Amino acid sequence: MSAGKLNCPIFILSTNMKRPYFLFVWVLAIFFIMALGTIGFMLIESYSFLDALYMTVITIASIGYLEVKPLSDAGRIFNIVFIITSFSTFTYALTRLTSFLVSGEMQYYLKNRKIMSALDKLNEHVIICGFGRNGQQAGKTLRSHREDFVVIDHREENIDGFLLHDPNLLYIKGDATDETTLLRAGIHRAK
């Protein structure tokens, strides 16, 4: 797929792109809390796995159904600590997830994955390092000759005017002297 033939919106890839690793961390934390609760109820109250899992879920969800069987004093202390820990963890995880989705970070991440895919498919393309006046002129010339190209510039404002005429421009926000940035632009497959 070539940059000149993409039918997708503007792609801006930052070389220090955030990845939603924290989602994995918080999903792992949630499973850890559930496992901790289940194991705790099994050890302290001698519940079966299903009863312990049930108690864990109703405790985390704050549903308030009746206990499987009355808790011992040790079970009550465990449950108090478990309620505070699980409530805090779930509240924070839900807040971060909501923030991630609402703030546009998820869209940013998905857009950057899409550009990485487009860049991986480019071959025999030109890499324009810097998109000031000369870089933009080179871009116009390459586009008029239907040549594929990728722009690398650390200043987004250098590209804004060009985007009005070419919304399918492939653009990497980063340092063109950095080897990692050049590798992301596909320098080993470029002309």
Structure summary, number of beta strands: 4
Q: What's the domain count? A: 2
Radius of gyration: 26 Å
Q: Might you state the CATH topology name of the largest domain?
A: Rossmann fold
Order of helices and strands: EHHHHEHEHEH
Proportion of residues in β-strands: 5-15%
Helical segment count: 7
Cα shape = rod-shaped
List the uncertain runs: 1-18
Termini gap:
16 Å
Side by side, the strands of the main sheet go 1-4-3-2
Computed structural class: alpha/beta
Largest sheet: 4 strands, parallel
Task: Kindly state the percentage of residues in helix.
Answer: 55-70%
* CATH domain class of the largest domain: Alpha Beta
**Mean of all residue-level pLDDT scores:** 81
- In the CATH hierarchy, the architecture of the largest domain is 3-Layer(aba) Sandwich
Question: What would you say this structure looks like, in words?
Answer:
It is built from 7 helices and 4 strands. It is of the alpha/beta class and 191 residues long. It folds into 2 domains: 100 residues, Rossmann fold (3-Layer(aba) Sandwich); 82 residues, Helix Hairpins (Orthogonal Bundle). The protein has a 4-stranded parallel β-sheet with strand order 1-4-3-2, sandwiched between helices. Helix 5 links the parallel strand 2 and strand 3. Helix 1 crosses helix 2 and helix 1 runs antiparallel to helix 3. The longest helix is centred in the middle third of the chain and has 30 residues. The radius of gyration is 26 Å and the shape is rod-shaped. The N terminus is likely disordered.
